[in-house]
Amino acid sequence: VISNNIIYGTSDDGVEATDSAGVQITGNAIGWTNLAGTVPGAVNNIGAEGVDVNNSPGANISNNKITRTVSNGISINPSPNSVIQGNNILNVGGHGVLVNAGSHNSDVLD
Q: What is d(CA 109, CA 46) in angstroms, rounded to the nearest whole number?
């Protein structure tokens, strides 16, 4: 479980989970300077993706606040049966949410 962190000023992904079946990434402020997600950091202060999940079936990515990334807000790569729900994503350099091939039976919800 990766929960309730303030992640700011990275040279790579804000959060990366690889080979982590069932990982839960929830309630984080990524690219913000406070957990409430009300004070954004500098432009492109997250050097790649806000959340990058790889080969992690059943991932749950929820209720995160993500901003000012160089790349995608959230990206899942071959991670089937995952749920992306209730995230607030704005001002990112790529897609808000990118679901790549091999992530079948995954849900992206409001």
A: 24
102-105: list long-range contacts, CB under 8 Å, 24+ apart: 102/77, 102/78, 103/76, 103/77, 103/78, 103/79, 104/80, 105/80, 105/81
The span from the CA of 69 to the CA of 107, in Å, is 23
Q: DSSP readout, the chain? A: -EES-EE-SBSS-SEEEES-TT-EEES-EESBSSTTS-SB-STT-BSS-SEEEES-TT-EEES-EEE-BSS-SEEEES-TT-EEES-EEES-SS-SEEE-TT-TT-EEE-
What are the tokens at 97?
């949410």
Claim: this prediction has a pTM higher than 0.90: yes
Structure tokens at 82: 């995952």
pLDDT in tens, 54-89: 999 999 999 999 999 999 999 999 999 999 999 999
